[in-house]
């Protein structure tokens, strides 16, 4: 059996989490994890398919693995493997193509010693209830992650993910609590809840539960210093969740909320079920109740048919709002989605120009938000070191702060007085 393995991952945090879980399984089975460039005997490529470009990147990784070691076995999984296994199967050197649900059974497939190429891709999420990966340790991280949900029922017109991940499935309520409690008992200072469509958590459970109920149960029942939430759709942020965050010493004041466009006409074409006024009022309400909350927003530039005026509506809305950071994505045609066939596809040069405008706005917003904390003392979870004795930690409101210290403090909570801002971010002194 091959005993060296490399794992290459493209795409979202869910893919990254699942790759880390695969790595843990392979280590426990006796494999030696090596860097991709070393030419391992076994290579796992965990693909993304959010755009046609990521499909091409996935194919390039597969071919590169073979160039590094002609004898290697390449196993391809992830969202691209899920939606187009035939395209991957035809690439020379691919030993296995396994879907998103099948990736958790990787060790079983490896043990079966396949003589011919294996393709195991079933329709995702046929049964109700998610069977997510779990991780017992996070060796290279100071924070732990718990996947609470998989799949998506939203069917935004630009997105392939519902086809690649299936319908929304939630991890049972008590199972999530047990996993968070186990990580807290291991000494992790922060746990991050993750999922593809987190706001839909619990709607498929019996009895029906909600993300807010889960957050409250964790806060009230588990001795965890910090609980952080992943991305939540704007229509799924409850008033109770905002109120709880406003008074909590444990729920991090940090929300990542997809906007995608500030023009109502574009939102309708995107199949997003809110308008710009709703989004504006939501952000203002959060800011009023949690004034120091770090609010991050996703936005897409150059959606099909986006006019100059529609883009300007988006820019104006973002400029008006009290935001901490922007995640700007250029629209990219994804075959198989309704948006790919819409008229008025925006030219690439214009999409890049609009992205540059929004990224410049995002940089200004990020600096304005960060500079509010100069002169303040922040509690950080230390995440790692950088060159010349600098350490780096993350605050409750998602600010990275650098400070000098000789010892390895990774995973510890420290207090740092913020002294200033520079392009690399905030810096300060350890108290």
From TrEMBL:
Its cofactor is [4Fe-4S] cluster. It comes from the Bacteria. Residues 3-115 form the MTTase N-terminal domain. Its EC number is 2.8.4.5. Gene3D superfamilies: Methylthiotransferase, N-terminal domain, tm_1862 like domain. It catalyses: N(6)-L-threonylcarbamoyladenosine(37) in tRNA + (sulfur carrier)-SH + AH2 + 2 S-adenosyl-L-methionine = 2-methylsulfanyl-N(6)-L-threonylcarbamoyladenosine(37) in tRNA + (sulfur carrier)-H + 5'-deoxyadenosine + L-methionine + A + S-adenosyl-L-homocysteine + 2 H(+). PROSITE patterns: MTTASE_N, MTTASE_RADICAL, RADICAL_SAM, TRAM. Residues 371-431 form the TRAM domain. Keywords: 4Fe-4S, Cytoplasm, Iron, Iron-sulfur, Metal-binding, S-adenosyl-L-methionine, Transferase, tRNA processing. InterPro entries: Elp3/MiaA/NifB-like_rSAM, Methylthiotransferase, Methylthiotransferase_CS, Methylthiotransferase_N, Methylthiotransferase_N_sf, MiaB-like_bact, rSAM, rSAM_horseshoe. It holds the Pfam family UPF0004. Residues 138-368 form the Radical SAM core domain. One of its GO terms (molecular function) is metal ion binding. It is an enzyme of class 2 (transferase). Catalyzes the methylthiolation of N6-threonylcarbamoyladenosine (t(6)A), leading to the formation of 2-methylthio-N6-threonylcarbamoyladenosine (ms(2)t(6)A) at position 37 in tRNAs that read codons beginning with adenine. Belongs to the methylthiotransferase family. MtaB subfamily. This is Threonylcarbamoyladenosine tRNA methylthiotransferase MtaB. It comes from Geothermobacter ehrlichii.
